UniProtKB/TrEMBL annotation:
Residues annotated as domain HD: 271-426
PROSITE patterns (alphabetical): HD (PS51831)
Lineage: Bacteria, Bacillati, Actinomycetota, Actinomycetes, Mycobacteriales
Stored NCBIfam families: HDIG, tRNA_CCA_actino
EC number of the protein: 2.7.7.72
Record-given protein name: CCA tRNA nucleotidyltransferase
Length: 484
């Protein structure tokens, strides 16, 4: 890009930012006036300015000011619908008004202890001092908000140039920045995913050299960055960066571990590349916001292959029960990363079920098998459909088409059976009370055994009349008593 082209694009981006910020006038101008009335300056800052420049600003707005936290709290209490000061020790007070959420922080000049990522917070007196402490130059731009609605663009570190060329670079030496806060390495990768930028060469080199420092960061903070990374618009490039830099070896080593394993069909360079392809195809099947559960399941669905690889006679390779092993590995890793139990359960269950469809073969599953497929998937069925379709990555176009047509047939079978019975809530035809009354039982484990028998029978034969269900239960009960 020539200097003339860069200058023209800079002008366009600034105009775009001004247009974007005009839609937030009802928030920006009243706040700026209130701070001016108290003798203070107010700046939109950081990611909010970057996103305004890129035309992607949402309703969460970040500000910085020379006002101290008690003054910020007073102003926001007068202005906002709700105020919370959980970050006031770090100089931050937040508020919500209408659809907007604002976070306002006093100028800071942090000192890090080089052991954790927790800074010793000291308040600063200048905008420049506040900006230079930030993670990346593209996040060190600000817009001064004037009481009359005017705006002044402030870019002392030339973050706009980084935005223009699409690069993620640090204000000072990256080694110093990452020593202060190693989480910035993961944040850099995350911005590659979210913005489609690239890491500056010196940032990439420093990340490679200092990847082990990420172990200073808590699992919870790592998890947040990983979710933002896989949920971005360019997650494949970012995952490659995690692996290339060695960060993945420290935070989720099962991903680079797949690079060592050739898949059984020899259709891909390795299982790692196959998994990236599945992730890309799963993303193509999304119909709304990024589905993190689906994306994690797509990326991790084959992580059990390295542990189950076997060389067969004749030169073949097998991975028997890799879905079982993989589900256990997913559960262990996600728990270590402090994911919520619901996410752990959902991702591991999808990994466990992703091969089930291949038993469908030529479409001769019984109705019972179809019911069990739907029941085992439960509320994950739609995601399972997408994961299985995304996993059809063979280069043989005829085989790929046949697999998709076979899955079409399975979905048609599911739809037909759903029309005839409630597949979303398969339960026995008799509840616990009816079981106890019919068999003359008190509450206890035998009632649970009878309930389970009826549930299995329901899956096998479908809905039964009450008379047929009672007759079947009585026959089962006689067998149990004869066995005793």
């Amino acid at each position: 890009m020539s200097d003339e082209e860069r200058s023209a694009r800079r002008t366009r981006l600034l105009a775009s930012a001004a247009s974007t910020l005009a839609s937030f006038t009802d928030v920006l101008t009243p706040l700026a006036a209130r701070f001016a009335d108290r003798g203070h300056e107010l700046y939109l800052v950081g990611g909010s300015v970057r996103d305004a420049v890129l035309g992607r600003l949402a309703g969460d707005l970040d500000f910085t000011t020379d006002a101290r936290p008690p003054v910020i709290a007073e102003i926001l209490a007068e202005w906002g619908d709700a105020v919370w000061d959980t970050g006031i020790d770090f100089g931050t007070v937040s508020a919500a008004k209408g659809d907007a959420t604002v976070e306002i922080t006093t100028f800071r000049s942090d000192i890090y202890d080089q052991q954790s990522r927790n800074p010793v917070v000291t308040f600063g007196d200048t905008l420049e001092g506040d900006l230079i402490r930030r993670d990346f130059r593209m996040n060190a731009m600000a817009v001064k908000l004037l009481a009359d609605g005017g705006q002044e663009f402030c870019d002392p570190l030339d973050g706009m140039t980084d935005v223009l060329i699409g690069v993620v670079d640090t204000p000072a030496a990256p080694e110093s920045s990452f020593n202060d806060d190693p989480l910035r390495m993961l944040r850099g990768v995350r911005f590659v995913s979210q913005l489609g930028f690239r890491l500056a060469d010196r940032v990439l080199d420093a990340t490679r050299e200092m990847a082990d420092q990420i172990e200073r960061i808590t699992a919870e903070r790592v998890r947040v960055e990983l979710d933002k990374t896989i949920g971005g618009e360019h997650p494949l490039e970012a995952i490659d960066l995690l692996v290339e830099t060695g960060l993945a070896d420290r935070v989720i080593p099962e991903i680079p571990g797949m690079k060592l394993t050739i898949d059984e069909h020899h259709q891909h360079k390795d299982v790692y590349q196959h998994s990236l392809t599945v992730l890309a195809q799963a993303i193509d099947l999304e119909t709304g916001d990024p589905d993190l559960v689906l994306r994690w399941a797509a990326l991790l669905h084959d992580i059990g292959k390295p542990a189950t690889r076997r060389h067969e006679e004749g030169g073949g390779v097998s991975f028997h029960h890799h879905e079982v092993v993989g589900a256990k590995m997913v559960r262990k890793r996600l728990r270590k990363l402090k994911y919520p139990n619901a996410v752990v359960d959902d991702v591991s269950q999808l990994v466990f079920l992703h091969l089930r469809f291949h038993g469908y073969g030529d479409g001769k599953w019984t109705d019972s098998a179809v019911r069990r497929y739907v029941t085992d998937a439960g509320p994950l069925l739609d995601r399972l459909h997408k994961l299985v379709r995304a996993d059809c990555t063979t280069r043989n176009k005829r085989r790929a088409r046949r697999l998709q047509e076979t899955y079409d047939h399975l979905e048609e079978r599911i739809a037909v059976i759903k029309e005839a019975e409630d597949l979303d809530r398969v339960r026995p035809d008799l509840d616990g009370n009816a079981i106890m009354e019919l068999l003359g039982l008190s509450p206890g484990p035998v009632v649970g055994q009878a309930w389970k028998y009826l549930k299995e029978l329901r899956l096998d034969v479908g809905p039964m009349s009450r008379d047929d269900a009672e007759a079947a239960l009585l026959a089962w009960w006689e067998q149990q008593r004869d066995g005793d």
